Design the sequence.
């Protein structure tokens, strides 16, 4: 059917509904009076709702609406029978998204008893998870920028693109600390350190919501902080495995980023995690959700389930006999909204009628979603304009920001003999080799923009060097297509695999320099893609060794979502750039870094271990965690906070004031940084602390401040930090948080080991 005809029909359909509304009873109820306060409107609407209508507001739907669906009166009537409060339609193109959502909103307002608008929900991990949206670098790449102000701008853009398409509530950001590098969701996290994750998460929330206090101005959306809690350190890195974490570690590492994000930005939603802690699934863990999250951290917003998390109280954890009981356990523990299909919470009305849930408890939850709908103005302005959405989606400033974030996320891991940057006028023939060198489709997480137009590294280099012969060869697959579950390929190559590798080796021999582009993709890094090895998957290391054996200079570019044990590369490849999953400007950002148009300034947000056998092995470390032994691998491959530059920096003039302070006082610290090289560059100044004597074992050092600065050659700048009592405190042997009198060591440097 012709799209223009469908659009005309939909607009006509909306106009007819609007005319019907205008001719109806002019005596509107109080909750539709925008001159009243939100509290008054919520109270009035609650008083008019049945128990079933209230329960419906706590249930979400995930539905794949089509144009024929919204024109089918019976289909729409069936969908709205339960009056769900939230809806997450499937991914679709911009025009379809806007037109279908407007039609659904019209039906909700004009054809249901109370006319309550729908709250549309979407994912937004690294950009709006919709077609034609701007694709930003993945979350772990954002963490490597160490630049919260930049990440706040990124999410402001994301919020604007989402709101223009009718989205109101997003399931982002993730502040899980990625303590388990085998876990497939490392790419969704800002790093392994709680302080860094909390600061970046707070910035993301401010960008999405447009404020620090939970208010949501125009062109912004409500954010959901997730996953509470312990999700980043499960057994074996398996996504839904138990998190066997001590109470002290849980507080030090896993609760802390939530504390920071809630204190500094206040998200409107929080999502519990799939895992259990000490035998209690998080979706029914009243101690964690009520005592800690609500009472201790002060969160009073909407508690939304992870997808099927309530159902899994029965299906995964075997605690509940049925969905009805799971609903009661979750609701009484503090979960208030059932995503994605409401199949469990549909039973809440039965529990209310049986007296297991009071109507007051039900109203308390329902009031939260109604309040958000009133605050967002959905009763007065529920519709969005397709022309405006198109305009916002094509805003060139959004693309420029995506490119900037991609640049700032690139980490220069190694640069022996200053082989980088490459001289663009030096080479007549360059070989670009590897399975990620010209990959367009599999470098986007499924929680990001759909079908984003990725510019590959091969394309970026060709465009950067129009007069140079640039040869591309794939060399091998990322994973063996015949044995996709195999981590180690110790069987002979097929004829096709041998051909691919031989072509790559031949191209390397013909070139003057080789750029290898290796790493992972959505088949190796994703929610359901945990690994048992941290080596390069498939035959990539074999390919790397074969190319290095040609004797040609090799530069390695990694595109991946987790740390890798790249021991061979670290020992034999002169230069290594890690670009993570950098979004649609992948190729351009990498090419600019390779040829010196941009000086890399990213720093690692995760530790690179030498072997999977070292796990758990993430910063911060407890004493003894890295103890040397003749029978074990010792030390990190690349430490947390590590990253090189094409210039150099010096540190000096450290000042601490006062040198003695009471346990409730602040401490001011400053340091002078100077660019001692010949070109402009970024430095990430990192502040670490160590408690010299403590009543319980503390960490060898903890991150307590950082700032990314940009300096011209010869320029210097004072960097200032303020330490507050919270930064020096610990959980004592009685699990009370306090600042103990004593000595603290202050360390400032360019990584956790370069102090």
Sequence:
């Amino acid at each position: 059917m012709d799209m223009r005809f469908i659009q005309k029909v939909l607009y006509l359909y909306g106009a007819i509904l609007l005319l019907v509304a205008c001719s109806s009873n002019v005596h509107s109820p109080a909750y539709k009076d925008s001159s009243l306060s939100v509290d008054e409107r919520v109270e009035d609407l609650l008083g008019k709702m049945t128990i079933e209508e209230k329960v419906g507001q706590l249930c979400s739907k995930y539905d794949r609406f089509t144009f024929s669906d919204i024109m089918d009166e019976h289909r729409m009537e069936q969908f709205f029978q339960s009056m769900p409060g939230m809806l997450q339609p499937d991914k679709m193109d911009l025009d379809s998204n806007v037109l279908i959502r407007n039609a659904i909103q019209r039906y909700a307002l004009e054809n249901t008893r109370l006319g309550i608008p729908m709250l549309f929900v979407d994912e937004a991990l690294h950009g709006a998870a919709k077609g034609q949206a701007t694709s930003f670098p993945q979350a772990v790449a954002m963490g490597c920028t160490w630049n919260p102000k930049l990440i706040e701008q990124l999410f402001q853009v994301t919020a604007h693109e989402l709101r223009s398409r009718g989205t109101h509530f997003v399931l982002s950001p993730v502040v899980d600390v990625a303590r388990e590098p085998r876990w497939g969701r490392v790419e969704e996290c800002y790093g392994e350190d709680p302080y860094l994750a909390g600061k970046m998460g707070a910035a993301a929330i401010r960008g999405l919501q447009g404020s620090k206090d939970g208010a949501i101005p125009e062109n912004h959306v409500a954010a959901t902080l997730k996953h509470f809690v312990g999700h980043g350190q499960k057994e074996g890195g398996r996504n839904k495995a138990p998190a066997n974490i001590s109470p002290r570690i849980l507080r030090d590492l896993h609760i802390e980023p939530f504390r920071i994000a809630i204190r500094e930005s206040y998200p409107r939603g929080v999502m519990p995690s799939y895992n259990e802690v000490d035998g209690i699934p998080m979706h029914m863990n009243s101690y964690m959700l009520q005592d800690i999250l609500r009472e201790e951290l002060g969160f009073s917003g909407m508690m939304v389930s992870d997808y099927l998390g309530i159902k899994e109280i029965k299906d995964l954890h075997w605690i509940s006999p049925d969905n009805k009981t799971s609903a009661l356990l979750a609701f009484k523990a503090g979960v208030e909204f059932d995503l994605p299909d409401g199949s469990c919470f549909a039973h809440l009305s039965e529990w209310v009628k049986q007296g297991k849930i009071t109507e007051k408890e039900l109203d308390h939850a329902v009031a939260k979603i109604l309040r958000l709908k009133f605050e967002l103005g959905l009763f007065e302005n529920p519709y969005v304009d397709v022309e405006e959405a198109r305009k916002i989606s094509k805003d060139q400033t959004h693309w420029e920001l995506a490119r900037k974030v991609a640049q700032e996320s690139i980490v220069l891991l190694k640069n022996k003999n200053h082989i980088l940057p490459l001289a663009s006028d030096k080479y007549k023939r360059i070989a670009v080799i590897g399975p990620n060198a010209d990959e367009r489709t599999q470098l986007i997480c499924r929680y990001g923009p759909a079908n984003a137009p990725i510019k590959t590294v091969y394309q970026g280099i060709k465009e950067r060097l129009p007069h140079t012969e640039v040869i591309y060869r794939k060399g091998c697959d990322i994973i063996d297509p015949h044995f996709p579950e195999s981590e180690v390929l110790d069987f002979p190559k097929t004829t096709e695999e041998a051909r691919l590798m031989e072509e790559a080796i031949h191209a390397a021999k013909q070139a003057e320099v080789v750029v290898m582009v290796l790493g992972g993709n959505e088949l190796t890094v994703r929610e359901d893609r945990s690994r048992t090895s941290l080596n390069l998957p498939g035959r990539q290391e074999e390919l790397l060794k074969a190319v290095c054996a040609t004797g040609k200079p090799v530069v390695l570019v990694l595109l991946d979502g987790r740390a890798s044990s790249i021991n061979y590369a670290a020992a034999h490849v002169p230069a290594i750039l890690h670009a993570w999953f950098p979004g649609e400007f992948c190729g351009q950002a990498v090419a600019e870094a390779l040829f010196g148009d941009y000086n890399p300034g990213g720093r690692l947000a995760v530790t690179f271990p030498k072997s999977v056998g070292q796990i758990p092995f993430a910063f911060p470390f407890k004493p003894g965690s890295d103890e040397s032994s003749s029978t074990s691998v010792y030390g990190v491959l690349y430490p947390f906070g590590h990253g090189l530059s094409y210039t150099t920096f010096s540190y000096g003039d450290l000042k601490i004031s006062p040198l003695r302070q009471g346990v409730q006082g602040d401490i001011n610290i400053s340091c002078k940084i100077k660019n001692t090289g010949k070109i402009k560059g970024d430095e990430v100044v990192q502040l670490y602390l160590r408690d010299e004597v403590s009543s319980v074992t503390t960490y060898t050092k903890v991150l307590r401040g950082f700032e990314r600065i940009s300096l011209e050659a010869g320029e210097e700048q004072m960097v200032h930090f303020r330490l507050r009592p919270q930064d020096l405190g610990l959980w004592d042997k009685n699990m009370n948080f306090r600042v103990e009198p004593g000595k603290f060591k202050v360390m400032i440097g360019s990584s956790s080991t370069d102090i």
Q: What stands out?
A: Residues 3-22 form the longest helix (20 residues). Residues 15-25 have pLDDT under 50 and may be disordered. The chain is about 35% helix and 15% strand.
